[in-house]
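Hi Y.,

Following your request, here is the sequence exactly as I used it, all 295 residues.
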Amino acid sequence: MEHFKIRYWMASNLAGVLFFAGFAVGDDLEVFGKSNFIKADWADGDSFPVKLSNGEGLTIRLYGVDCVEWGVSDDSDARRLRSQRRYFGIAEHPDGHGASIELAKRFGKMAAEEVANVLRNPFTIHTAMADGRGDERYSRVYAFIELSNGKDLGEYLVSKGLARAFGVSRSTYDGRSRDEYRAHLEDLELVAAKTGAGIWAETRWEQISEERRVARLEEEEDELSKGTAKLKDGEKIDINTASRDELTKLPGIGDFLANAIIEARPILSTEDLDDVSGIGDATIEKIIPFVRFNR
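Below is the corresponding structure, written out as tokens. Let me know if you'd prefer a different format.
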């Protein structure tokens, strides 16, 4: 565990150096070959601990993909699981919501087990050490993982129907732009859905459009319910270092906008916030009393 703390301290300080030097965090990817998977009860398909070849520990959060939650421990996890169930079209289960939840968790666990299986052989990590915390309780860095056979782990999970193309992304280690990588993941997801791979085999296609419409409404309702930030009086969060869950405490900020903020870092001013996709003047006015900019 001490290795994890040391490596997270190093990641945070590297991010600070890049930020103050005028570079966007994540411009350059470090390469760690011959890395190994570490089994952990809390790990899931897109987030897990690894050991580098020098013996140091690191916790990875994959770029661009989102596996189903299967260890739900708080309201944020429960809300995310609900959204994932609707995305895959399994929320309105014939046997009720309980059956839908158990079905989704089963595929979440399946993704975690598949990752443990494909990472039995040493693999290569490509990371800029950008802070990848979803939950402020855990230290993680965003990364791509190149399997021993040369394939990208995120692409593999989506093609197997064990993840959706969703979340923070960036330009890749093999030269593709962020948008190109994201589009490729979406194409792989379409093929997985068409062939009924993984969780897509359980999709109730006659209702998926309605489920996704409801998911959008639920997201809007969640954001509207945050008219008052879930922060203590006078408390501010750093827009450049806050985790995804910390960002969603801001009024009007859900998972989608939190991911957009993370992708747009560094954010130095309200003008930079205005450039974030999906954030306009009304949202900025609501959140600005609760944020600070790391200069």
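DSSP finds ten helices and nine strands in the chain.

Thanks again,
Q.
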